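B., you asked whether I could sanity-check this one before it goes into the benchmark set. Here's the sequence:
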Amino acid sequence: MNQQLLKEQIAFIPIVIGMFFLSVTDAQIIYHQDGFSISCSGYCNQHVNIDVNKDGVSDLTIDISTIPGHVIAHYEIPPFAYVTASGKHGSFFSFDTLSTPDSIINGDLPWQKELTDLRRCNGSDCIGWVNEVEHYLPLKIVLANQSYYGWIQLYVSAATIPLSASCSSTGFAYNTIPNQSILAGDTISLATGIQYVERFASVVVPPNVIQNLATVSFSLSQTEKTSIIIYNVSETTIKILANEIMTAGTHQLQWNATDESGHQVPSGFIF
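And here's what the prediction gave me:
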């Protein structure tokens, strides 16, 4: 890559910053305030993929759909609406146990990953979760033969009069210690009593035209564990600039437009 192309590539790059508030002790529970809301009416299908542990791999897919009533070969097909969940890769969820706040999520639950209706309406018949009531869907992520337990808070709705479907969430959490339980809705580490919250912020990073480097500047009000991560448009991690405890004050990091393997990223690859 020539120097001019690299200069253009790193000019004013928004870097996604995740700051993990912590003093100097590792936390047990990570709580992500990543909300979403999807809705459907008429002929419609939407879905959202959720990466619970932020490793670039989707752990859960929520899918919603609505289809109006219609006639096929003189047979009347009633309208239907549904909200479904399915586990991805090494991830599972427990649908049979509708967890209420503080209920225990561990290996004793009936885990599955197959596509499952959270709520479905076929004509006037509806089954599954109650509309617009807070639920906690238990989650299990399996990595290197270790199980990590978590939850996602969900509100679902499906109806045929009027025809509609929706799903929303304000966040999710998981226990970073393998094979240990978590309480539904819990965002406070049982081990440290510290809430470990991930926040994301976008900052504009001006380039260093002479050295072909982009400089990330930020300030911390207290000693915190801080991660500075660059993602691509698929939310896959490209470069981890920092993942460590940093002291209060102003910090600067530099990025030379390379990925974790040291390869230069294509122009326009980062947003």
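One thing to flag: Residues 1-27, 190-196, 200-204 have pLDDT under 50 and may be disordered. Otherwise nothing jumped out at me.
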